[in-house]
Write a structure and sequence with these properties.
The protein is α+β, with helices and mostly antiparallel strands. 19% of the residues lie in helices and 41% in strands. The strands form 2 sheets. The protein has a 9-stranded antiparallel beta sheet, with no helix packed on it. Strands 3-2-1-4-5-7-6 form a 7-stranded mixed beta sheet, with helices on one face.
Length: 267
C-alpha cells in the first residue's frame, strides 16, 4: 500500500504521493500485460520512471511517462539515459488527466483509489478495445480485474517487506444495444435479434430467432472479441466475432459446420 511520503506538488485535486513500485512488482505488471516491442506503454504518474524504463529495456516497448513533479521528470530522464533507453522513452511533465491516452496499448498506474476512480472513465473512453490496463495495489472498484496476482515484495513498506497486488484489465468494446444478426447458420430467413446489456466486460442478453425466444448462453467480451451461443432447434450455435463500432463480423459454428456471420447495431 502507499505509505506516507513527501507530498507531491498541488497541481491537481486528485493527487497520489510518490512511492515507487517495488522492482519485483514492476516486472509482474509488465508480465501480466504481456508487453512486447509492439506496445506503447504509458505510466500515469511515472515517479522516477522505473516502469517506463523497464518496459523499454526488458520488453523492447516504446514507453511514455506522465508526471507532474518536475524533479521526478528530470530524474526519470537521467535514469533513462543511464539505462540506455533514451531513444525509446519519453517523459511528459504535466497532469495525467490532461494527456490523450488513445495511442497507448498498455497503461500502468500506481495511484490512490480516488484517483483511479476518476481515471476510470477516461481509460474506457480513450483507450482502444483490447488495450491493457495494469494497476499496482489499488483497483477500479466495480470494474473488476480480468486477472489478479499477489506476491511478496521485499522492498515494500520502505524495505520491511509486504504483499503487492497487481491487476490486469482488458478494455472492453462498447456493445450494449440491439443487434440484428445475419448468417446462413440461422434458421430461415437467416436473421436473429440480440439485445445486450453490459457492465464493463460482463455481458447479459436475450435473443429472438424469428418469433422464438432463444437462450443467449455464456456471452463473453474480451477487448473487441465477443462470444456467445444461441440454442437453435438443430443444436447450439457458437458465435465468435470482432466488434467494430456498430458492426460485428465473425464465424458461427454448429453441428453441421461453420459459417460467417455479421451483425449491425440498431441506433
Ligand atoms: C505512487 S507513485 C508511482 C510512481 C511510479 N508509477 C511507480 O509505480 O513507481 C505516484 C506518482 O504519481 C504522480 N502523480 C500523482 N497524481 C498525478 C497527476 N494528477 N498527474 C501527474 N502525476 C501525478 C506522483 O507525483 C507520483 O510520482
Amino acid at each position: 500500500m502507499l505509505a506516507a511520503a513527501a507530498p507531491a506538488p498541488a497541481q491537481s485535486d486528485f493527487s497520489s504521493p510518490y512511492v515507487p513500485t517495488p522492482t519485483v512488482a514492476v516486472e509482474r505488471m509488465l508480465g501480466l500485460a504481456q508487453v512486447t516491442r509492439d506496445d506503447l506503454v504509458m505510466d500515469l504518474g511515472s515517479g522516477d520512471g522505473r516502469i517506463v524504463i523497464a518496459a523499454a529495456k526488458r520488453h523492447g516497448a516504446r514507453a511514455t511517462g506522465v508526471e507532474y513533479d518536475p524533479k521526478l521528470v528530470a530524474l526519470s530522464r537521467q535514469n533513462a539515459l543511464a539505462a540506455g533507453v533514451g531513444e525509446r522513452v519519453r517523459f511528459v511533465e504535466g497532469d495525467l488527466f490532461d494527456v490523450d491516452l488513445s495511442p497507448a496499448t498498455v497503461v500502468t498506474v500506481y495511484l490512490l483509489p480516488d484517483v483511479n476512480l476518476k481515471l476510470r472513465d477516461k481509460l474506457l473512453r480513450e483507450l482502444r478495445p483490447g488495450a491493457r490496463v495494469v494497476a499496482h495495489d489499488f483497483d477500479f472498484e466495480s470494474w473488476r480485474p480480468d486477472r489478479v496476482e499477489s506476491f511478496y515484495a521485499p522492498e515494500k513498506n520502505r524495505g520491511r517487506g509486504g504483499t503487492s497486488r497487481v491487476m490486469l484489465w482488458i478494455v472492453p468494446a462498447e456493445v450494449r444495444g440491439t443487434w440484428v444478426l445475419r448468417s446462413a447458420a440461422l434458421p430461415a430467413p437467416g436473421e436473429a435479434q440480440v439485445v445486450l446489456s453490459q457492465n464493463f466486460q460482463v455481458l447479459e442478453g436475450d435473443a429472438m430467432l424469428g418469433e422464438r425466444r432463444a437462450a443467449l448462453r455464456e456471452p463473453a467480451l474480451r477487448g473487441a472479441v465477443i462470444r456467445f451461443s444461441l440454442d437453435a432447434v438443430a443444436g447450439p450455435l457458437r458465435f465468435a466475432g470482432e466488434v467494430r463500432g456498430d458492426e460485428i463480423a465473425g464465424t458461427v459454428r454448429g453441428a453441421a459446420g461453420t459459417w460467417p456471420w455479421r451483425a449491425t447495431r440498431r441506433r
